[in-house]
Write the C-alpha coordinates for this entry.
Amino acid sequence: MVTYSKLTAMSSSINSGMLQTHRYKTFSTKAQYQMVLTTLHKLQESGFYWGSITGKDANAMLLSEKTGTFIIRDSSDKRHLFTVSVKTASGTKNLRIQCDSASFFLQTDPKNIQTAPRFDCILRLVHYYMSQSKGNNRSGNIYYIHSGGEKIPLELHQPLFCNLSTLQHLCRKTVNGHLDISSNKEQLPQPVRDYLQDYDAPI
Protein backbone atom coordinates (compact mmCIF):
# COMPACT_ATOMS: atom_id res chain seq x y z
CA MET A 1 0.00 0.00 0.00
CA VAL A 2 1.15 3.53 -0.72
CA THR A 3 0.56 6.25 1.83
CA TYR A 4 0.23 9.82 0.60
CA SER A 5 0.44 12.78 2.96
CA LYS A 6 -1.64 15.72 1.79
CA LEU A 7 0.27 18.02 4.11
CA THR A 8 3.68 17.05 2.74
CA ALA A 9 2.63 17.23 -0.89
CA MET A 10 0.93 20.59 -0.63
CA SER A 11 3.04 22.50 1.86
CA SER A 12 5.64 23.61 -0.67
CA SER A 13 3.17 25.30 -2.99
CA ILE A 14 0.16 26.37 -0.93
CA ASN A 15 -0.02 28.92 1.82
CA SER A 16 0.37 27.05 5.10
CA GLY A 17 -2.54 29.00 6.55
CA MET A 18 -4.87 27.13 4.21
CA LEU A 19 -3.83 23.71 5.48
CA GLN A 20 -5.95 21.63 7.82
CA THR A 21 -4.64 19.09 10.28
CA HIS A 22 -2.34 16.31 9.05
CA ARG A 23 -4.32 13.87 6.92
CA TYR A 24 -3.31 10.73 5.08
CA LYS A 25 -4.80 8.89 2.15
CA THR A 26 -3.94 5.26 1.43
CA PHE A 27 -3.85 4.13 -2.19
CA SER A 28 -4.23 0.64 -3.59
CA THR A 29 -1.68 1.02 -6.38
CA LYS A 30 1.26 3.17 -7.36
CA ALA A 31 -0.65 4.15 -10.52
CA GLN A 32 -3.48 5.59 -8.45
CA TYR A 33 -1.00 7.49 -6.30
CA GLN A 34 0.69 8.92 -9.41
CA MET A 35 -2.67 9.88 -10.93
CA VAL A 36 -3.54 11.90 -7.84
CA LEU A 37 -0.12 13.57 -7.70
CA THR A 38 -0.35 14.54 -11.38
CA THR A 39 -3.85 15.91 -10.87
CA LEU A 40 -2.77 17.83 -7.76
CA HIS A 41 0.04 19.47 -9.71
CA LYS A 42 -2.39 20.55 -12.44
CA LEU A 43 -4.89 21.83 -9.89
CA GLN A 44 -2.20 23.99 -8.30
CA GLU A 45 -1.46 25.42 -11.76
CA SER A 46 -5.15 26.04 -12.50
CA GLY A 47 -5.63 29.03 -10.20
CA PHE A 48 -9.04 27.87 -8.92
CA TYR A 49 -7.87 25.22 -6.45
CA TRP A 50 -8.35 26.73 -2.99
CA GLY A 51 -6.74 23.99 -0.91
CA SER A 52 -7.99 23.20 2.58
CA ILE A 53 -10.74 25.77 3.02
CA THR A 54 -13.99 24.64 4.65
CA GLY A 55 -17.44 24.35 3.13
CA LYS A 56 -18.45 27.37 5.21
CA ASP A 57 -15.59 29.39 3.70
CA ALA A 58 -16.55 28.25 0.20
CA ASN A 59 -20.15 29.30 0.79
CA ALA A 60 -19.04 32.76 1.95
CA MET A 61 -16.80 33.24 -1.09
CA LEU A 62 -19.44 32.10 -3.59
CA LEU A 63 -22.35 33.91 -1.93
CA SER A 64 -22.20 37.01 -4.14
CA GLU A 65 -21.05 35.20 -7.30
CA LYS A 66 -23.16 34.30 -10.31
CA THR A 67 -24.86 30.92 -10.61
CA GLY A 68 -22.43 28.40 -12.07
CA THR A 69 -19.34 29.87 -10.39
CA PHE A 70 -17.29 27.12 -8.75
CA ILE A 71 -14.07 26.23 -6.98
CA ILE A 72 -12.14 23.04 -6.28
CA ARG A 73 -11.03 22.49 -2.69
CA ASP A 74 -9.88 19.75 -0.37
CA SER A 75 -12.71 17.58 0.91
CA SER A 76 -13.68 18.02 4.56
CA ASP A 77 -14.55 14.30 4.56
CA LYS A 78 -11.38 12.36 5.35
CA ARG A 79 -12.51 9.52 3.09
CA HIS A 80 -12.16 11.75 0.04
CA LEU A 81 -9.55 14.10 -1.39
CA PHE A 82 -11.36 16.81 -3.33
CA THR A 83 -14.71 18.62 -3.52
CA VAL A 84 -16.25 20.95 -6.07
CA SER A 85 -18.23 23.78 -4.47
CA VAL A 86 -20.62 25.46 -6.90
CA LYS A 87 -23.06 28.36 -6.65
CA THR A 88 -26.55 27.27 -7.70
CA ALA A 89 -29.91 29.03 -7.73
CA SER A 90 -30.51 27.34 -4.36
CA GLY A 91 -27.21 28.39 -2.81
CA THR A 92 -23.79 26.77 -2.66
CA LYS A 93 -23.67 23.00 -3.11
CA ASN A 94 -20.66 20.81 -2.33
CA LEU A 95 -20.06 17.70 -4.41
CA ARG A 96 -17.39 15.22 -3.43
CA ILE A 97 -15.09 14.07 -6.19
CA GLN A 98 -14.62 10.37 -5.72
CA CYS A 99 -11.47 8.53 -6.72
CA ASP A 100 -11.02 4.88 -7.60
CA SER A 101 -7.96 3.02 -8.84
CA ALA A 102 -7.94 4.72 -12.25
CA SER A 103 -10.34 7.67 -12.33
CA PHE A 104 -12.14 10.59 -10.72
CA PHE A 105 -15.92 11.00 -10.81
CA LEU A 106 -18.62 12.97 -9.02
CA GLN A 107 -20.22 11.42 -5.97
CA THR A 108 -22.82 8.85 -6.87
CA ASP A 109 -26.42 9.53 -5.97
CA PRO A 110 -29.07 6.78 -6.08
CA LYS A 111 -31.54 9.32 -7.50
CA ASN A 112 -29.34 9.89 -10.54
CA ILE A 113 -30.28 7.40 -13.24
CA GLN A 114 -27.12 7.82 -15.28
CA THR A 115 -23.70 6.67 -14.19
CA ALA A 116 -21.30 9.55 -13.63
CA PRO A 117 -18.55 9.59 -16.30
CA ARG A 118 -14.97 8.97 -15.16
CA PHE A 119 -11.79 10.86 -15.91
CA ASP A 120 -8.09 10.42 -15.19
CA CYS A 121 -7.79 14.10 -14.17
CA ILE A 122 -10.10 16.47 -12.29
CA LEU A 123 -9.51 19.20 -14.87
CA ARG A 124 -10.96 16.91 -17.54
CA LEU A 125 -13.94 16.22 -15.26
CA VAL A 126 -14.52 19.94 -14.76
CA HIS A 127 -14.17 20.69 -18.48
CA TYR A 128 -16.70 17.96 -19.31
CA TYR A 129 -19.34 19.41 -16.98
CA MET A 130 -18.62 22.94 -18.18
CA SER A 131 -19.28 21.75 -21.74
CA GLN A 132 -22.46 19.99 -20.62
CA SER A 133 -23.63 23.19 -18.90
CA LYS A 134 -23.27 25.21 -22.09
CA GLY A 135 -25.57 22.87 -23.98
CA ASN A 136 -27.75 21.46 -21.21
CA ASN A 137 -30.97 22.58 -22.88
CA ARG A 138 -30.27 20.21 -25.77
CA SER A 139 -28.43 17.41 -23.97
CA GLY A 140 -29.98 14.50 -22.17
CA ASN A 141 -26.87 13.92 -20.06
CA ILE A 142 -27.54 16.47 -17.34
CA TYR A 143 -26.11 15.66 -13.92
CA TYR A 144 -28.56 16.58 -11.18
CA ILE A 145 -27.81 17.52 -7.60
CA HIS A 146 -30.42 16.11 -5.20
CA SER A 147 -30.47 18.28 -2.11
CA GLY A 148 -33.20 18.91 0.46
CA GLY A 149 -35.89 17.49 -1.80
CA GLU A 150 -34.74 19.63 -4.72
CA LYS A 151 -33.45 18.40 -8.06
CA ILE A 152 -30.93 20.96 -9.29
CA PRO A 153 -29.07 20.66 -12.61
CA LEU A 154 -25.32 20.93 -12.15
CA GLU A 155 -24.06 24.02 -13.94
CA LEU A 156 -20.36 24.82 -14.04
CA HIS A 157 -19.87 28.07 -15.94
CA GLN A 158 -16.77 29.76 -14.59
CA PRO A 159 -14.18 29.11 -11.88
CA LEU A 160 -13.48 31.57 -9.09
CA PHE A 161 -9.74 32.16 -9.19
CA CYS A 162 -7.62 32.49 -6.06
CA ASN A 163 -4.61 33.93 -7.88
CA LEU A 164 -3.67 35.56 -11.15
CA SER A 165 -2.36 33.42 -13.97
CA THR A 166 0.87 34.26 -15.76
CA LEU A 167 0.68 35.36 -19.37
CA GLN A 168 2.40 32.10 -20.33
CA HIS A 169 -0.28 30.05 -18.60
CA LEU A 170 -3.09 32.07 -20.20
CA CYS A 171 -1.52 31.46 -23.61
CA ARG A 172 -1.20 27.75 -22.84
CA LYS A 173 -4.90 27.51 -21.95
CA THR A 174 -5.81 29.33 -25.16
CA VAL A 175 -3.75 26.90 -27.24
CA ASN A 176 -5.33 23.95 -25.42
CA GLY A 177 -8.84 25.25 -25.94
CA HIS A 178 -8.91 26.81 -29.37
CA LEU A 179 -6.21 25.34 -31.56
CA ASP A 180 -6.05 21.79 -32.88
CA ILE A 181 -2.31 21.20 -32.74
CA SER A 182 -2.41 17.44 -32.36
CA SER A 183 -1.34 16.81 -35.97
CA ASN A 184 1.40 19.46 -35.88
CA LYS A 185 2.61 18.92 -32.34
CA GLU A 186 5.84 17.24 -33.40
CA GLN A 187 6.85 20.41 -35.24
CA LEU A 188 6.84 22.44 -32.04
CA PRO A 189 10.07 22.90 -30.05
CA GLN A 190 10.43 20.32 -27.28
CA PRO A 191 10.20 22.89 -24.43
CA VAL A 192 6.88 24.13 -25.84
CA ARG A 193 5.55 20.59 -26.17
CA ASP A 194 6.58 19.83 -22.60
CA TYR A 195 4.92 23.02 -21.33
CA LEU A 196 1.65 22.20 -23.10
CA GLN A 197 1.73 18.63 -21.84
CA ASP A 198 2.31 19.79 -18.28
CA TYR A 199 -1.12 21.43 -18.28
CA ASP A 200 -3.31 20.10 -21.09
CA ALA A 201 -6.64 21.71 -20.13
CA PRO A 202 -8.31 24.82 -21.58
CA ILE A 203 -9.62 26.05 -18.20
Remarks:
- DSSP finds six helices and nine strands in the chain.
- The radius of gyration is 17 Å.
